[in-house]
Amino acid sequence: MAQMAIERVSKRFKTNTVLDDVSLSAETGEIVVVFGPSGSGKTVLLRLIAGVEDLDAGSISLQGKDVTNAAPEARGLGMAFQNFALFPHMSAFDNIASALTAGASSKSQILSKVEAVARLLKIGHVLQHAPRELSNGQKQRTALARALVSDPRILLLDDPLRNVDAKLRYEMRMELPSLLKTSGSTVLYVTQDYKEAMALGDRIAVLLDGKFAQVATPAQVYREPASLDVARLFGDPTVNVIPTTPTLENGLPVFDIGGASIALPSSYAHVAGRACVVGVRPESIAVSEAFASGAFPVEVVAVTPLNEKSVLLLRAGDGRELLASEAGEGELTRRRGPACASFDRDAMLVFDAASGLRIAPQSH
Amino acid sequence: MEHSSPLEKVLRGLAIALIMIFFLFPIFWIFLMSFQTNEDILRIPPSLFFSPTLSNYQALITGKLETVSGTLDIAFMRNLWNSVLLSTVSVGLALILGVPAAYAFARYKFPLSEDIAFTLLSFRFAPPLLVLLPLSLYYQQIGLTDTYVGLIWVYQLIALPLILWIVRGYFEDISPDIESAYRISGHSWWRTFTRIAVPLAGPGIAAAGLLAFIFCWNNFVFALILASADKQPVTVGSLAFVTAAGIQYGQIAAAIVLSITPTLAIALWAQRYLVEGLSLGAVKG
After folding, report:
1. 3-class SS at A299?
2. Which residues of chain A does B284 touch, with a Cβ-Cβ cutoff of 8 Å?
């Protein structure tokens, strides 16, 4: 029995359809990340589950109970908001305790529970402060503590790391998975940072234009994206896109880049003659100064450091620009000018040009 | 902080002092007048030196007005009490009706919500005298003329739109997420309204209540037409000081001092609720 089941849910604001016939389920203890660009309806989905917003069609059940028409206070879940939504006229302690005061907990129980969760989130020393006296990181932890303190079976986290600085975001990205796993709750986590999605999710539900484009494990979403749009959302720099119509040559599908023919794996033989889009992730492009088989000539135009890797801007013979990335500080060693590039064949992705859906390789 | 030269500071202080004198002098002068006899007040040229007398206050409190042509009964204390009663109950009622209504207008979009809100505001555009003529006829028919209930009802025309529109703005400034968070924590709608929405809109409610109280207190024309002597507030009651034996300036001054005291006291008391920035730091902007 799924802890959380959303079935065929639709939501419209006037004429604007935000969620269109969306279904999703999550098991006990599972962390499902709802990922998508801003405006894709992630927050609306969370608000529907929380009962803060009414849905137009479909049903929602939590812990096996249909709560489609239940009031927010009757759903028994915890939620952390992107903007923290702390109660400004209450201390951090009262903010956290507010999740317990509605229940049957005694004063001493409330005290010990709040202190325990505050210790866990390292905000024990600021419990008596008002929200305006807290730093952004402390506010975010207070909001998280408020969601966690009542030990809800279902936890909704709406981009809780959006408004904290980079260092804290990094720290929390490390801490959160274990924190959420120990809570044993089913977690729906909304983010628009693909790294966060990959780091935290047992599964990622990619929300695009009001529909789930793909619901799968992080590895699957990255390696076998359901569509070109999904592939574009994961990875930095983004996937290289080469529109082409492959032809068969000696039994291998090949396509052309600047006069050089590049072969796809034989498992893609069925795409020959079809209008396709080939996707190559930057890290799947190897650039060397010596010629290798299957390589094609390019010019290294620019080298930009990006965190721990370098991004190379390449220009092929036909003027097509490609981005490659490689580990290390190539900026110092990499020469601009003519070079050879080759694709990691097994990592190439092929999409249908018209629909944008991925074409899976066929095994023989 | 901007830096200013000593000269600028002196000039600024001087300007503030001038403005204060301009606005406060009449009140100061009235305060002095309230301790003078009519002869002292009407002396030419006027003088700051006089032998103070409490006879004006005595006359007001005892209700016996001594004039050259004899003793008149005045109901000033009764008028003062009427003012307190009418203003307090009117504002109280307007708050009970207006704050939930303001919340509804701020949070929920229902058919014609904007039109209803605007209609309520438009009551304040209408010239009171225009409204009063038909109103006094209706009041006579349904027996509300010269009753406290009738006056309090008509005072809603003053207080309700003011409270509704000011408080609505304050509710709109509260992030709905704050209220959602409280409800998700397991609290009912009503508890959320009383524990979160109302306290956060507190400064607005205090400001609107205070303004409404002052407007009700200062109202003249509604009570003049719709009430007789024993239901009239001080504003109308002060007409009694224009007697056959002349205008009793001393008593008028004393009456003004007594009648601005409650509003002043309430303003000073409400000031602490007018703190701004209470909602700072709740949400990341």
Report:
1. strand
2. 82-84, 136, 139, 163
